[in-house]
Write a structure and sequence with these properties.
Chain lengths: 332, 290
């Protein structure tokens, strides 16, 4: 394992790389990275439910979309809305939305949970299409003003400059990722894993299983909402197809599976891999669906543990190869 | 009979016809789930594929009846291929993997359909004998809708006979309740699984052909029917044929009367119904397990 010093160097190096990234790669790849970061946070929040609590939220896009629409509506309807205020409203609306669903969904598990979310996700999609006077139907809400980030007394940073927006988005999304990571390391996070492994035993130990699930559910929903809010600010547009579409829900599943289940950084790697693949395939062919479908089938057939699973196997092999004798001695 | 009543009855027939088609799709889905614990998200893709096969056979031979006979069988063949070479291999990996593989298959089917037939909607002509209106007791009914209801009832009767009066039906019902025990009794369960999967996709195929002349054939068919069928299966209870039937009928009527009274919110009615049912009974109306 890395020691304390190594960790500091790693974090410092990461921050320097993230800081220099837009200066080195230019605007196109900067925007690509923001997209990746948004879907990484979204997928990690999905995995918080699936990998850590075994709740398969098959309509995760609804949180993403509610956060996005919340932010967009705040900026469109309320004049003089600040950037962080809009972000906060997006977050708040997702939390309220998750709280409304909680009483129904915490009582079911397994495929019923998955199907319920598939259905609710689709319901939100239809509502977004049909409630035209609020959501703008197929066209969605776009062209709303994006206020600058005001730090009182110090500066007002315009978000119209892609580079500035990059730093803002990376800061928010990075903080979200760190908070989710921290969340899984708390004692509460351990109960959550306990619920996944053996809900009945956790119940006997005196912890409340439905309430635990509810908290995780709201937290996961909230971070998906943050991802949706940033996405909306990034695109300056939110529409039913980009927010609530079933493909957005599948995106989280695909990223998680390709990256590897049951590991915190798996979905992150998955999001990166899928982003790169999409970038490459759209350059050569417009049959993105076909490629995505084939990748899904091939991953499940030949690498069911995903990318992180492959890494783990390779590392185990390497460790076994490099230090077999030490292990033997320790055992005897 | 005054025009208002006539309109209500006409809407009712539309609703029942749609409910019947919905049931054909949902019954395959729920049968496959009840027996194999597989949620086949590609089910609606097979439904769409069959509609395309129907169009293809019709344009090749000009005979609707031949298309009605052949298209579902060819679809079932593809379904069997998928079960044999994909789903059987990943059965041990659990629910997630199955869902994702079936999504993958449906994406591939969608892409293939777009490559072979394009994206525009293709018309399917009803044979002349089924067009027009039929007069029963002073009321005009669209003949084709009645034909759909009749066809579905015939298929339903065949299914019921197969399930409750034959040896293979007995095996299937036993396998729904405990596949391992049936396997231990010396019955080739993987073969039975393949058979059930084939029958399920065949049912979806029949529904696809039946709906083709009404909605025309286009790539959006999958999304349109798939979601409805899933909601039916969830609300009726996983693996329950009776639940699927009743909920299909309710949804058919809800959607046809819903369009009339609250046209913009008609699709929401179905989900609202589902939410109420699930809030009271999380396993669905007739479901026995999670």
């Amino acid at each position: 394992m890395m020691n304390k010093k190594g960790q500091w160097i790693f974090w410092a190096g990461l921050i320097v790389v993230l800081f220099l990234y837009p200066k080195v790669f230019g605007i196109y790849y900067t925007n690509l990275f923001v997209t990746f970061a948004i879907f990484a946070v979204y997928s990690v929040s999905f995995n918080l439910l699936l990998g850590y609590t075994a709740l398969f939220s098959f309509g995760h896009a609804m949180f993403f979309g509610v956060g996005g629409y919340g932010t967009a509506l705040a900026l469109e309807r309320i004049s003089g809305m600040s950037l962080l205020g809009a972000l906060g409203i997006g977050l708040l609306s997702t939390i309220i939305f998750a709280l409304i669903l909680c009483p129904i969904v915490v009582r079911v598990t397994g495929s019923a949970f998955a199907m319920l979310h598939l259905a609710f996700g689709q319901l939100m999609y239809i509502l977004a299409l049909k409630l035209r006077n609020i959501t703008g139907g197929e066209d969605g809400i776009g062209g709303f003003p994006i206020p600058p980030l005001n730090i009182p007394g110090i500066a007002s940073i315009s978000m119209k400059v892609p580079e500035n927006f990059y730093y803002f988005a990376i800061a928010v999304l990075g903080a979200s990722l760190w908070m989710m990571w921290f969340f899984t390391k708390t004692p509460f996070g351990q109960i959550q894993v306990g619920v996944r492994d053996n809900a009945m035993r956790v119940d006997y130990l005196g912890f409340k299983v439905p309430q635990t699930k509810a908290v995780v559910y709201v937290v996961a929903g909230a971070f998906a909402g943050v991802a949706g809010s940033i996405f909306t600010l990034f695109q300056n547009l939110i529409a039913a197809d980009s927010a609530f579409s079933i493909l957005v829900s599948f995106g989280a599943v695909i990223n998680t599976l390709v990256g590897g289940l049951g590991s915190f950084f798996g979905p992150l790697c998955g999001a990166a891999i899928m982003q790169i693949l999409e970038e490459v395939t759209t350059r050569y062919t417009d049959r993105v669906e076909l490629v995505a479908g084939l990748i899904l089938i091939l991953v499940i057939m030949f690498a069911p543990m995903g990318f992180m699973g492959g890494v783990r196997i390779l590392r185990a092999k390497w460790l076994a190869h490099s230090a077999p004798k030490v292990k033997m001695e320790k055992v005897s | 009979m005054d025009p208002t009543t006539a309109m209500y009855i006409a809407q009712g027939i539309h609703g029942i016809a749609y409910g019947m088609v919905l049931f054909l799709v949902a019954s395959g889905l729920t049968l496959i789930f009840g027996m194999m614990d597989i949620l086949n998200l590609a089910h609606a893709a097979f439904f769409m594929l069959s509609a395309y096969f129907c169009y293809q056979f019709l344009s090749m031979t000009g005979n609707f009846w031949l298309a009605l006979l052949l298209a579902p069988v060819v679809t079932a063949f593809f379904g069997i291929l998928m079960e044999r070479f994909l789903l059987r291999k990943i059965h041990a990996f659990g629910l997630m993997s199955q869902l994702v593989v079936t999504v993958g298959v449906s994406l591939v089917i969608l892409a293939a359909v777009k490559i072979f037939w394009g994206t525009e909607s293709l018309p399917v002509k009803i044979p002349p004998i089924l067009t027009g209106l039929v007069n029963i007791a002073g009321m005009d009914y669209p003949l084709y809708r009645l034909f759909i209801i009749g066809l579905s009832l015939v298929v339903l009767a065949i299914m019921a006979l197969l399930l409750y009066k034959t040896r293979i039906g007995k095996i299937v019902r036993a396998a729904v309740s405990d596949p391992n025990m049936v396997n231990a009794l010396g019955i080739n369960i993987p073969l039975v699984f393949t058979f059930v999967f084939g029958v399920g996709t065949w049912l979806a195929g029949v529904a696809g052909v039946a709906i083709a002349p009404i909605l025309t054939v286009f790539p959006g068919l999958e999304a349109q029917m798939g979601m409805d069928a899933f909601v039916v299966v969830i609300t009726g209870g996983f693996g329950s044929l009776a639940g699927a039937f009743i909920v299909s009928m309710i949804f058919g009527l809800l959607s046809s009367y819903g369009v009339q009274f609250v046209s913009t919110l008609a699709p929401v009615l179905m989900f609202a119904f589902m939410a109420i049912v699930l809030a009271i009974r999380p396993v669905g109306l007739f479901g026995e397990r999670e």
